[in-house]
Amino acid sequence: MVLGLQLSIARAGSTINMNVMKPIYDWLGHSYSGYQQLGVALMLASVVAGYDLVIGIVLAIRDTWAEKKLKIKEAKSEDKISPKDVKEFHLDYWTITAIIMFYYMTIFPFVSFGVYSDGLDHLLHPMSHSDTN
């Protein structure tokens, strides 16, 4: 469940990034031009990513502090995990892994081509093709 939640939040974040960065880039066009405009836009994105990293570190420290304060101990397992265990995975696991891998390998190029094609069909300006995504 945690992995699904993490993937959902990552997908939401990438969608927000895709839809927000172009207006920020355009807004910076009033003050900067050319490579400086791109550099400032990427610097703003880097600052947000750095902020996210700092918040993640703070949450990890607080989680460790809470575990110590509440005296929560993790369950210890006698089983040791090694890379050789991969060969023991069932065919079902490898089938699902291959399906997910091929899905993402095919869907992203298709979506990017579809957005471009949709923009041509509806006579959109090339800079606004990504808005249809």
TrEMBL record:
Q: Name one GO cellular component term.
A: endomembrane system
Q: Does the keyword Transport apply?
A: yes
Does the keyword Membrane feature in the UniProt annotation?
yes
Q: From which domain of life does this come?
A: Eukaryota
Q: Keyword annotations for this protein? A: Membrane, Transmembrane, Transmembrane helix, Transport
Main location per UniProt?
A: membrane
Question: Membrane topology type, per the record?
Answer: Multi-pass membrane protein
Q: What InterPro entries has UniProt attached to this entry?
A: MFSD1
Annotated localization? Endomembrane system
- Which residue ranges does UniProt annotate as crossing the membrane? 38-61, 93-116
> What protein family is recorded?
Belongs to the major facilitator superfamily.
This one is known as: Uncharacterized protein
Organism whose genome encodes this protein: Oppiella nova
